[in-house]
Amino acid sequence: MYQLKAVTQTYERRGQIVTALDNSDLTIPDNDFIAIVGPSGSGKTTLLSVLGGMLAPSTGDVMLDGESLYDLSVEERTALRGRKIGFVFQSFNLISWLTARENVQIPLMLSGKTAKQQEERAMEMLDRVGLSDRTDHRPSEMSQGQQQRVALARTLANDPQIILADEPTGNLDSETRQQVMSYLNEFHQDGRTIVMVTHDADTAAFAHRTIRLVAGVTHEVAVAKAA
Amino acid sequence: MKLRHMIWKELWQRPTPMLTSLLAVTLGVTALVAIQNITVFTERKIAGDMESLGANVLVLPPSVTLQDYYGADMHGQTMPEEYVTRLAFARLPGVENLAPKLCVEADVDTIPVTLTGILPRSEFQAKAAWQGLGMLGNAVGSDAGCCATAADTGAGDDDPNSLATTRTIAELGDRDVILGRDLASQLGAKTGDSLSLLGDDFTVLTVLPATGTIDDGRMFAHLHSVQDLSGAGPVVNVIEIMACCEDSAGDLITNLSAELPETRIVTIAQVVQTQIAVNGLMSRLSWVFLSILLLVGATSIASVMYANVTERRKEIGTLMAIGASRNFVTQMFLGKAAVLGLVGGAAGFVVGTIVAAVLGPQLLGIHVQPMPMLLGVGMGTATIVAVAASLLPARRAAGLDPCLVFND
Q1: Does the distance separating the beta carbons of A97 and B321 come in below 8 Å?
Q2: What CA–CA distance (Å, rounded) separates A126 from A147?
Q3: How many C-beta neighbours within 10 Å does residue A226 have?
Q4: Which of B7, B109, B178, B310 counts the most CB atoms within 10 A of its CB?
Q5: CA atoms in the 13 A half-sphere facing the CB of B260
Q6: How many angstroms separate the CA atoms of B143 and B240, rounded?
Q7: What pLDDT shows up at residue B109?
């Protein structure tokens, strides 16, 4: 379970202090599916970075499963991220010079799995997203939808408890968007917590809760019905 | 998949900067290996030549300027043969053998030849006075066997061909001649043939094996026969001394100068001193070349690595977001640098050895063989330089903010 307690994040830009998160409180129970929406610059990405253990807030606490995330060292947070948190990016962020299988193997390699374990797990995950026939293809040899599915397979590789998705359907057409959201929904049904940043109302509609961020302040919106 | 697999695959994604860096490193190591290789083998050749020369000290008339060790008797100046006797009586420690020589011009069937008069070791043994000094059975000097590294006097070797390697001979009749290989070919003469020389008939005792020196074009006869027939009288052009290698560089020269103040004493060490100095300079220069070229290589690698970090910011951020530690990112870049260093070092060793093997015989007349030690030196140096040059870029990569993976 995530708990944000009075989290404030400020930046200095051109001599001016910008407040990205302003004394925000948020609780995300296990197996929740949250959409974070809001206008550009409202602090959505900052919130995702804070939740991912990649950006220490200026003030406040971020608790994950009862542990203060930013009391951990950078290396400990990195290890925790590899173990518990998976990421989905808008532009997929696949390594262009590695094949689909190798991309999925990366988090497994980083968590110390053997080459055999990596290969087996990668094949399993690619099969799950319907890409068992594209394992040796590079990202440039695949469609956008296929690339995002490879990224989903990579996200799932270490069986993370939490998935943080940054505009996961931002670069996809409507049909592929539907497909990707179905997968995320499926991952949620597996028991994972999904926190998704999106501009798109249709995508947000897949979530159980929607949090609106306005000027760095979180506002709970009425619980939407899952698609 | 392992880290090294990622490093290897990434290297081939950007081959041009990789090859540029590799070339710079390779050139540095090539310069080191080629120069060191040639230097070492030149030194070995000089050492081998010194050993094979046998004689390592020359006694010359004072006005002679030595240009060529093998041509030390070609200057036309003479000194009394009596100096040989004086040296023998002096019993100088370190003197193993003496070889006086007199060179005259002669003709054989209208073909001009250089006739060198030499004194066989039997002549020393025949002199009663010298026998009384206990020199029988040993070389001329009084301290045979004193040398930690004995000069190769060839004492006890009765083969006339020993003249080619030791510059001395045990027996030589007063009407015997020994021919150098080239001269024998020119005259069409072989062992046992008779030759007319200085108005007298001589028998060819043997034809020497090729030595690669001016001796190949010479004819050798008994010193006293040459003195008599040429009318030169009891004189010699040079006295070659086979001395202990250590003594030839020590007190012996002082002692010889004291014994024969009217002469000029030259050691083979002096003759090769300049060459050795040049070799030392070359050796030091090779490190200067290596340093300069590796500095260029290091700059190139650092530049390529910085560009690589900038180019891969998002990739690095993604890796960090999905669990790559700073240490992993650092290793990714240093590993790449290490590969460039190792490959560049190995390639430099191969190219440098080939360059040395090709240029060595052509420019310096030496045969060069691979020196495995230089492989280790080349690879080690190149790797250290490449890794050191990549430390800052790697640190910069490891310090990247993983948040840059998100769209803001």
Answers
A1: no
A2: 11
A3: 12
A4: B178
A5: 27
A6: 17
A7: 85
DSSP B147: -
B325 contacts in A (CB within 8 Å)?
75, 78-79, 110
What does pTM read for this prediction? 0.66
Q: Say how far apart CA B25 and CA B300 lie, in whole Å.
A: 9
The verdict on a CB contact (< 8 Å) between B322 and A106 is yes
For the cut 70, the answer to whether the pLDDT of residue A190 exceeds it is: yes
In B260-371, which residue ranges form alpha helices assigned H by DSSP? 268-311, 313-321, 326-359
- CATH fold of A2-64+72-221, please? Rossmann fold (3.40.50)
Say if CB A153 and CB A122 are below 8 A apart.
Answer: yes
Q: Is A19 on the interface with B (CB under 8 A)?
A: no
Q: Do A167 and B320 touch (CB under 8 A)?
A: no
Return phi, psi of residue B206, to 5°. -165, 165
A20 lies within 8 A of chain B by CB: no
What backbone torsions phi and psi does residue B149 show, to the nearest 5 degrees?
A: -120, 105
| CB-based contact A107 B322, cutoff 8 Å | yes
Distance from the Cα of B330 to chain A's closest Cα (Å) equals 13
Q: Whose CA is closest to A52, among B320, B400, B313?
A: B320
CA distance A220 to chain B (A): 22
Distance of alpha carbon B263 from alpha carbon A172, whole angstroms = 101
SS3 B333: helix
Where do we find the tokens 């069409």? B188
Tell the residue number behind the tokens 């060793």, with chain if given: B349
* B324/A97 Cβ within 8 A: no
Report residue B108 as tokens.
Answer: 């054989």
SS3 A74: helix
Q: CA A75, A194, A102 angle in degrees (round to 5)?
A: 60
Asked if B185 contacts B177 with a C-beta cutoff of 8 angstroms, the reply is no
The chain B residues in contact with chain A (CB within 8 A) are 1-3, 6, 9-10, 12-13, 314-315, 318-328, 401-403, 405-408
ipTM value, please give it.
0.90
Residues B124 and B91: their CA atoms lie apart, in Å, by 13
* Bridge partners (DSSP) listed for residue A218: A213
pLDDT band at B28 (very low <50, low <70, confident <90, very high): confident
Give yes or no for A162 touching B (CB within 8 A): no
pLDDT in tens, B378-404: 999 999 999 999 999 999 999 988 887
Best residue in A18, A40, A80, A87 to probe B by mutation, most B CBs within 10 Å? A87
pLDDT computed for residue A221 by the predictor: 82
Are residues A62 and A138 in contact, defined by beta-carbon separation less than 8 angstroms?
no
Partner residue facing A81 (CB), from B13, B323, B408: B323
* Residues B40/B33, Cβ–Cβ less than 8 Å: no
Domain range list for chain B? 3-48+275-405, 62-262
Q: What is the C-alpha separation between B20 and B378, in angstroms, rounded?
A: 18
Which token pair is A94?
């696949």
For residue B28 the two structure tokens come to 């540095």
Alpha-carbon dihedral B350, B356, B361, B364, rounded to 10 degrees: -170
Q: Which residues of A touch B318 (CB under 8 A)?
A: 87, 89, 93, 95
Amino acid at A170: G
Which amino acid does the sequence have at B239?
A: I
